[in-house]
Amino acid sequence: MKPSNDIPAGSHGMPCPLCGGDRVKVRYVISNSRIVFCPDCTLMRLAEQPTQDELLAVYNDEYFTNKQFFAGGLYGYVDYISERINKQKEYADLFASVNKVLREQAGPGGETALSGQDDGKRTWLDVGCGLGYLLDAAVDHGFCSEGIEFNQWAVGECRKRYAFPVHCGSVEDVVPQLGQKKYDVVSLLDVIEHVPDPFLTLQIVRGLLKPGGVLVIVTQDSLSWTSRLIGSRLEDFRRVREHLFFFSRDSLERSLSKAGMTTVVERYCGHTFEVNLVLRRVLYQRHRKLYDFMAQAIDFVGLGGLKVPLNPQVKFLSISTSGPTAVKRSSDRYWGPLDEILWIAVAAPVAVFWTFSTICREFPESIIGRLTRVLADML
Description:
Layout (H helix, E strand, L loop, with lengths): L8 H4 L12 E6 L2 E5 L6 E3 L5 H7 L25 H23 L15 E6 L5 H8 L2 E7 L2 H10 L4 E3 L2 H8 L4 E7 L8 H11 E12 L4 H6 L4 H4 L6 E2 L2 H10 L3 E7 L2 E4 H9 L4 H13 L6 E4 L4 E7 L15 H26 L4 H12 L1
Parallel strand pairs: 4-5, 4-7, 5-6, 7-8
Antiparallel strand pairs: 1-2, 2-3, 3-9, 8-13, 10-13, 11-12
């Protein structure tokens, strides 16, 4: 039986948690999970939220090196540890943006309500700090670092490697341990979509900021043109075991405003990808023959291990503040020439193939369907 597209608020006992609207509709059906969309505020979320035990099963010892990633276990990372160098290089732009906002909050005279520790360093709390790569880089940029991480294994790794404190648990669990501590910067990078109640989380982290402090969030833009084009095939949507909410730029800004924050910077942010890994993540499960063919061709010319910076307009950075001088300025440049070239060269052919494969599946006797089957047989 095909799931209904109408999800009356009363049937789940919960209207849209952001705006209270009751016109939610099913946007995507992935396996047995439904992602619903509120047309009033553009927030998306899982209609059926996982239990605490189900979430604990996801955030296990293998979360950061998930060997089942390409065998249907779509959660965590293929090899998070190998991405460390690329991630820490990319953090340089983030620190530059954050420091710019902090300077603006300081005012013309350079004096600010923000105050560092006894050693004069500003403080940075990373919620969902993973293996501590961001906090390690923050120390190098002059911050006093501290982390919160839900995954017990990751917390153990951080405590073995670093001197800065890392607390184990959700932000709700850890806040009582922090006492009256306040921070200049609180970050949630690829975290807000994972928490069962992101609006409560935003209220809590707002309370952890010093006056004029900065909140940094990176998450998927669920309504970017890339997210719309790829739809339910997009990996971020398919991670239904761990992604519970899906924000657009508008719905996140609205959520931050409700928490007493003003968004001052928004921009799309990319990542450095290995070519072979991109192909595998996009094609491996659904188009194995095409992946094998393209992987062999790329390896033959020696480009399989090539790492390229790519910004497909899926993830975006939001920097907000509660300071009295907070005025939203024009967003940073979202898209560059290199991004356009790489997108056309890599993602556009994949999108075309997906379109043809869908036609082949839904209309197998059409001319395009027959031609696509012939091509698939040749590969």
